[in-house]
Design goal:
The protein is built from eleven helices and 13 strands. It has a seven-stranded parallel β-sheet, sandwiched between helices. A two-stranded parallel sheet has the order 7-10. It starts with a strand and ends with a helix. Helices cover 43% and strands 18% of the residues. It is of the alpha/beta class.
Length: 316
């Protein structure tokens, strides 16, 4: 299958590209290599693909660029990972998130419609659940309020996908990722940031009292879920959670990293941040049943795997 992966030079996108290539798919990736974090990390990610994938440097906000890419590419599938990420930065610059995550997603959907793309996968987020009271979070929960511009843009992206499925018959699957981590994780994310700080003897920022809970999902499990969604032949529009269905507090997470590194953390205690969710926990019953999703890596196994990758990278 000829597949376009947006954001394909990033952490999740690179892992997906690698899996697609291993299964014989023809892969094109587009990424704008922006400076949200060091672009050299993304270029190094692309280098691990061995020059097999076609790499396009471009911004999904550029409508004409996207139209041209789709006209030339004749894609059969799109896996849309590209987004401005992060809850806290979205509070500071919501317009950037609206332009990229909503307008950019619309450009992709419209190009997919015009070119007759067979299927479209959209990377959504557990952030859409906001202050949902029913735990674990299931896909059929009403979502009356998100807590950040980032979350709002992801929910808006889901709605746009639903529009295109209903109005134009585009087959769309929205995947709500729950805090993805593993080798290659972005340096701004908690597990990577904490590991680096502890390793170098710097204090780590702890927002709140450490009682917030997250459902962390290992990258290999996310990729397995994405591949299941790519094969899905259910309703034209559907939504699935991809998580581990297991939570851990921030305090416990820090302890796991300390144990894996063999070092104690210095904690800088800070106030809770606006937009942060107090709890995420995925109900993955639906994904298990319909996508064959079967997460294998619990946090107690995943953290040592990540730390091993981090230490090996640091020695190079």
């Amino acid at each position: 299958m000829k597949i376009l992966v947006t954001g394909g030079a990033g952490f999740i996108g690179t892992h997906i590209c690698r899996r697609l290539l291993s299964e014989g798919h023809e892969v094109t990736l587009i990424d704008d290599f922006n400076d949200y974090y060091d672009p050299a990390i993304k270029r190094a990610n692309v280098a691990t693909l061995g020059g097999v994938a076609k790499v396009v440097e471009g911004d999904i906000r550029d409508r004409d660029r996207i139209q041209s890419l789709f006209a030339d590419g004749k894609f059969e599938g799109v896996i849309h990972i590209a987004a401005r990420a992060g809850v806290r930065p979205s509070v500071k610059d919501p317009q950037l998130y609206i332009d990229t995550n909503i307008t950019g997603t619309h450009h992709l959907l419209e190009a997919a419609r015009q070119q007759g793309v067979g299927r479209f996968l959209f990377a959504s987020s557990s952030s859409v659940y906001g202050l949902a009271k029913t735990v674990p979070f299931s896909e059929d929960l009403a979502l009356p309020q998100t807590l950040s511009p980032y979350a709002a843009t992801k929910l808006a992206g889901e709605h746009l996908c639903g529009n295109y499925a209903h109005l134009f018959g585009l087959r769309v699957v929205c995947l709500r990722f729950f805090t993805v981590y593993g080798p290659g994780q972005r340096p701004d994310l908690a597990i990577h940031k904490f590991t680096d700080a502890i390793h170098h003897g710097r204090p780590i920022p702890q927002y709140g009292d450490g009682s917030t809970r997250r459902d962390y999902t290992y990258i290999d499990d996310i990729v397995q879920g994405v591949m299941g969604a790519l094969r899905y032949e259910g309703p034209l529009f559907d939504i699935f959670n991809l998580g581990e269905n297991q939570t851990i507090t921030l305090t416990e997470l820090i302890q796991e990293i300390e144990n894996a590194l063999g070092r104690k953390a210095m904690i800088e205690r800070l106030p809770e941040q606006q937009g942060d969710m107090p709890l995420t926990c995925a109900d993955i019953t639906k994904a298990r049943a319909l996508l064959g999703y079967n997460p294998q890596t619990k946090i107690a196994e995943g953290i040592p795997k990540f730390v091993t990758w981090y230490l090996n990278k640091s020695q190079k």
